[in-house]
Amino acid sequence: MTETELRHFIDTVFNYFQQLTGQGPQMGLPYIKNQDSVVMDFTGLIGISGPRKGGIYLTTKRDLLVKMTQIVLGDSSGDDQVLLDMVGEMANTIAGNLQKYFGADFQISVPIVVSGKPTDVSLRLKPPSFVIPFSWEGMKACLVAGLES
User: Fold this and answer.
1) pLDDT per position in the chain (149 positions), as tens?
2) How does DSSP assign 16-31, residue by residue?
3) Measured between alpha carbons, how far is 101 from 74 in angstroms, rounded to an integer?
């Protein structure tokens, strides 16, 4: 993935939060993912097909999702199913918004959502995968992207 492509991912995450909440996240310094798992409380995984194959996933702590469901859905229950739906929607929207940079051939799958450490879904992306850490209102999350060139 090129530096310009990585910048598209960063801008897309920033713009997503800015548009929905009026406050962009604090973006951390992207890094190449090693063998260690980068998975938080809830994760939404999107497969990518077309000329660029691979995937992205958004992983986040529960508190961020609870706040986002309050803002977006008006739901403050903290129910796991609602939070799973929210992380899937967030990952799907971010992936969809990336199409403006990568073109119509950047095909995205239906999100796969998991809570905790997945046991039956592989989150291994084609190396090198990049981790883009960020925090919004002090709550942590990461977007992880791995695309073939």
Assistant:
1) 889 999 999 999 999 999 999 999 999 999 998 877 789 999 999 999 988 888 999 999 999 999 999 999 898 888 999 999 999 999 999 999 999 899 888 999 999 999 987 655 555 566 788 999 999 999 999 999 988 86
2) HHHHHHS---EE---E
3) 31
Domains of the chain: 3-147 (3.40.1550.10)
3-state secondary structure 104-134: CCCEECCCEEEECCCCCCCCCCCCCCEEEEE
Residues 63, 12: Cα–Cα separation, whole Å: 21
- Report the alpha-carbon angle 52-31-137, nearest 5: 105
**Cβ atoms of residues 42 and 64 within 8 Å:** no
* Beta carbons of 42 and 60 less than 8 angstroms apart: yes
What is d(CA 83, CA 42) in angstroms, rounded to the nearest whole number?
Answer: 8
Pairing of strands 112-115, 31-32: unpaired
User: Tokens 């995968």 sit at which residue?
Assistant: 129
- Degrees to nearest 5, angle at CA 37 with 35 and 38: 120
pLDDT confidence of residue 14: 97
